[in-house]
Amino acid sequence: MANKTIILEKVKSTEKIVRQIEVENLIVFIVDRAITKKQIKDEVESLFGVKVEKVRTHTLKNKKQAYVKLKSEFSAGDLATKLGLM
């Protein structure tokens, strides 16, 4: 069995992020600092069956926050519900 690298470590949830989920169709993941935007996009699309419009990242210490904006035909609220955030 192949050893697959974990790309998405966890989902971040704060009041501000919940507002972004509802208003901007955006969800935030914590990832390793070495992971690229392309890897994040591919992983989210394959794991959750959605299409990603764009990925923005913000590096803090040894981790990176990935702000993943979904295409308009997919709902970040539905994805957040599946992940147990809402």
Structural topology:
Layout: E1 8-11, H1 15-24, E2 26-32, H2 37-48, E3 52-60, E4 63-70, H3 76-82
Antiparallel strand pairs: 1-2, 2-4, 3-4
How does this model look, in words?
The chain is an alpha+beta fold and 86 residues long. The protein has a single domain (8-82), classed as Alpha-Beta Plaits (2-Layer Sandwich), CATH 3.30.70. It is built from three helices and four strands; from the N terminus they run βαβαββα. The protein has a four-stranded antiparallel beta sheet. A hairpin with a 2-residue loop joins strand 3 (52-60) and strand 4. The longest helix has 12 residues, at 37-48. The radius of gyration is 12 Å and the shape is globular. The relative contact order is 0.24.
Largest β-sheet summary: 4 strands, antiparallel
What is the 3D shape? globular
Distance between the termini: 34 Å
Mean pLDDT: 89
Order of strands in the sheet with the most strands?
A: 1-2-4-3
What count of structural domains? 1
Q: What share of the residues lie within helices?
A: 25-40%
Quick structural overview:
With 86 residues, this protein is of the alpha+beta class. It has helices spanning 15-24, 37-48, 76-82; strands at residues 8-11, 26-32, 52-60, 63-70.
List the defining traits of the structure above.
3 helices; globular; 33% strand; 86 residues; alpha+beta; single chain; 4-stranded antiparallel beta sheet; 4 strands; 34% helix; Alpha-Beta Plaits
